[in-house]
Please model this.
Amino acid sequence: MNAPGVSKRAVRLLITMGDPCGVGPELCVKALLSRQRPSDAALTIVGSLAVLRAAAKTLNADLALARAGTPADLPGNVTVLDVNDFPPELLSVRSPTADSGRASIDYIERAVRETMAGRADAIVTCPISKEAIGAAGSPYPGHTEMLAELTGGGKAVMLLIRGGLRVAFATTHLALRDVPEALTEEGICRTGTVLSAALKDYFDVHEPRIAVCALNPHGSDGGRFGDEEARIVEPAVERMRRAGVDVSGPYPSDTLFARAVAGEFDGVVALYHDQGMIPVKLGGLGDVVNVTLGLPIIRTSPGHGTAYDIAGKGIADEGSLMAAISLAAFMERGSKASPA
Model:
């Protein structure tokens, strides 16, 4: 708590606008107008001022957007780092294009530079299209891998959160057929160890209980359905235990997530994308948050995509973005209680 008469500095959050042709611009406008904004957070949008003004017009929003030279330092400022002069006439193409992909990349790169330089405290990223950034020449399959490279943070860990369910991923954006070969003891260990440390550092879980998913049905049933459990996953679990992590598994994923939701575990390590994504998103996307762990900066994101089909209609739900903003501010503050 601050001493009487001493005001705490606002948490400086950069919100990247995401794909200009997706729902990101209107979500940003709604976030700036929302009463759910953390009272001590200064929000600066990294994107296109022209596109944001177009989104505000669509929403009939009375919002005065100002161009900023640097991220805002005080709460209440409604400012935009105008990075990419994206032509508003291209917004009629509500699909992934090289132009929108290039703009998305520009916003992320600028936000990372500002945050790494200490001019912002955390980044909240609106959705991008993997197809669009690919068309723009990006070698990265998504935000997670791009941010790891831009920050020099090594291998990042993707964490999905919905309420008390927290799921980290040993692999991320891969074809399912490539997952078994991509799984390594080292990768699973890093994921579980980073997750355990994050639960202590950001969520005030003093003794995190981590569970690891099996890859195969029934955990392979003693090798009948594969050998990855015995060959990779079990040695990784044992290695983490020796390093002091309270971890158990591998458990069949068809029962593990129900146990985690019931409170038996504080975090789960999923071995591939859909294994962890489906249980987190099953209850809806309104409060799902994507967090990138293992970086030298804080990054959160809504747990949904660009939603081209409804973009520009003003009907996109900002709930997941607001949850991501609140979580980023909470993590930066190092508070003793989770906002969930």
